[in-house]
Amino acid sequence: MQGLYLVSKFRVSKLGETMKKLMIKFLCITSVLCLVAVGCGGDDGDDAAGNQTGGQVTIAEGTTLDLDACPDDWDASEGVTDNEIRFGTSLPQSGQLAAFGTIASGMEFYFDYVNATDPIGGKDLVLVAKDDAYEAGRTVANVQEMLETENIVGFVGVIGTPNNYAIRPITDEACVPQLLNLSGFPFWGDPANFPWTVGNILNYVTETNIWCEAIVDEFGEGATVAGLFMNNDFGKTYQQTLQGCSGIEVVAEALHDPAAPDVTAEMTTLASSGAQVFVAGTTAAFCPQSVGVMAATPWRPRFYMSYTCNNLPAFFTPVKDAAALLQAEGAGVRIANSSKVCGDPRFNDDPAIQLTEQVLADYGGVTCADGSYSGGVFFAQIVVDILRAANELPGGVNRINVMKATWNLDTTNGNNFVETIQLDGTNDAYVTEGAQLQEVQVINGELTFTPVSEIFDYEGQGGSYGG
């Protein structure tokens, strides 16, 4: 009866290799001889290939996958075929944040490079990307569609705090990896409660605290600050963290609609505050807009901007003259960058950046100046490191091993200022934990980032959100 029950948990369409594994298990249950011949899983639901089908699976410190809560038709090996390892993503390819759509293309270019030069387990990496225009409802629809039709292992690089927040219950209930989402919302570092979801980029709270420390160091206690924030969880994380910073006084705030055509009115109002410091907790098209409007006013505060704006070609080339004016008048844009920036002439001879440029040229026919493609290459490199580690585990690449490899990630990446990248379950649940304050400057006619601080290195200190 136990063998028949296990078979009933899988869709008919997933028979084949899965059926063979289950039949081995059934025979193990019914035949003592099988115990000697092939070995049997215990009550935790291990099958002969190392793919667990039920029970509690502890994959890292404080991090457990409850496979009994997975759907009846759940299959750890879904999305991994004889020839492919398939992931999905959803991100804005239209609308005000469309500049980020090229990140998916950059990821695909790096996957193509790996497929051609050093494939993982002889399989091609495939990325299915859908446009959501940064609308959470469309992200949900895209994720549901891909789960039903695209045969994917999981999701990777979904952009946006509200978008990832909207899909987390779906991917958690489906027991599907939601890897390295492109949002610095602190909730993503919570493996105790949401072990299927992990973030990637610098925590917005950490970033804001770096700003706060620099503000107090420069202006002393009581420094006045004005802030522009996107009116969603992304922007409000900056707003709420800033409000809690000791030693500063927030004297003016403005929230803006993520779909607004521009932020001119909000910026004009904030300029009237005369605050010593301005912070821009916004992104995409609103990055150059805030620079342009600032330059058109007489206001010259110390200017801090979200690191999600750090693409020099995409966000600063259109306002190069305005950025140069602010720089010259003591209000140059400062960003807490965690990685080197492709297209910054300071890194023309850097091996990691040269590899990115090679991948973009050979597999995409584009350059760093053409958009956010390079960001996709950076993120895809970490995905590949995770998959290589998963491939070395018993059972190879599957949903369980992908999460185990993720929450025990231990690698280096030359694109980052803090090259060590480690995760350790609830001991250390954040991928990116280092940054350097840099100012956007125009030097010899070229946009570049000039360091204005030492590197803040918090690797291994992040703990986890849920404790």
Gist of the model:
By secondary structure, this protein is an alpha/beta fold. It is built from 15 helices and 16 strands.
Quick one: overall form?
globular
Widest β-sheet, arrangement of strands: 9-8-10-11-12-15-16
Q: CA-to-CA gap between the ends?
A: 41 Å
Helix content: 25-40%
Beta content = 15-25%
Identify the quaternary structure here.
Answer: single chain
What is the number of beta strands? 16
Main sheet specs: 7 strands, mixed
The helix-and-strand class reads alpha/beta
* Unreliable segments of 5+ consecutive residues: 1-50
What is the number of helices? 15
Question: Topology of this structure?
Answer:
Layout: H1 2-8, H2 17-30, H3 32-37, E1 56-60, E2 63-66, E3 84-91, H4 102-117, E4 124-131, H5 136-149, E5 154-156, H6 161-174, E6 178-181, E7 197-199, H7 204-219, E8 223-230, H8 233-243, E9 248-256, H9 264-271, E10 277-281, H10 286-295, E11 302-305, H11 312-316, H12 320-328, E12 333-337, H13 351-364, H14 373-391, H15 399-407, E13 410-412, E14 420-422, E15 434-443, E16 446-457
Helix pairs in contact: 1-2, 4-13, 4-14, 5-6, 7-8, 9-10, 10-12, 13-14, 14-15
Structural summary, described in words:
This protein is an alpha/beta fold and 467 residues long. It has 15 helices and 16 strands. It has helices at 2-8, 17-30, 32-37, 102-117, 136-149, 161-174, 204-219, 233-243, 264-271, 286-295, 312-316, 320-328, 351-364, 373-391, 399-407, and strands at 56-60, 63-66, 84-91, 124-131, 154-156, 178-181, 197-199, 223-230, 248-256, 277-281, 302-305, 333-337, 410-412, 420-422, 434-443, 446-457. Helix 5 (136-149) packs parallel to helix 6, helix 7 packs parallel to helix 8 (233-243) and helix 13 (351-364) packs across helix 14 (373-391). The longest helix has 19 residues, at 373-391. The protein is globular and about 65 Å long.
